[in-house]
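It is worth pausing here to work through a concrete case rather than discussing structure prediction in the abstract. The textbook approach is simple: state the sequence, then state the predicted structure, then interpret. We follow exactly that order.
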Amino acid sequence: MDRDTAKYIHQSNDHPNVYLGVCQICHLLKSFKDLKFLVPKHWKPGDKIPKFLIFFNSIQESVNTVKSLWTKMPSEMRNCLV
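Step two, the predicted structure:
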């Protein structure tokens, strides 16, 4: 991910159709294993994935997470994660 082409989106999450969910962390944070449910195992292009939003403590942490989730997606669909 190139910082020069990265998109920065700043919006409020104060909407009636936005729900807050909290999951217990079971693995090391740097393994990203606790986020694997976001991209279903047998996902393929055309399948719908519910929109999600993850909050991070740093930009670098978000970049590392996106790179990890990209490995679970076909290359032509990786632009779906910003």
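Step three, interpretation. The first helix runs from residue 59 to 70. The chain is about 15% helix and 0% strand.
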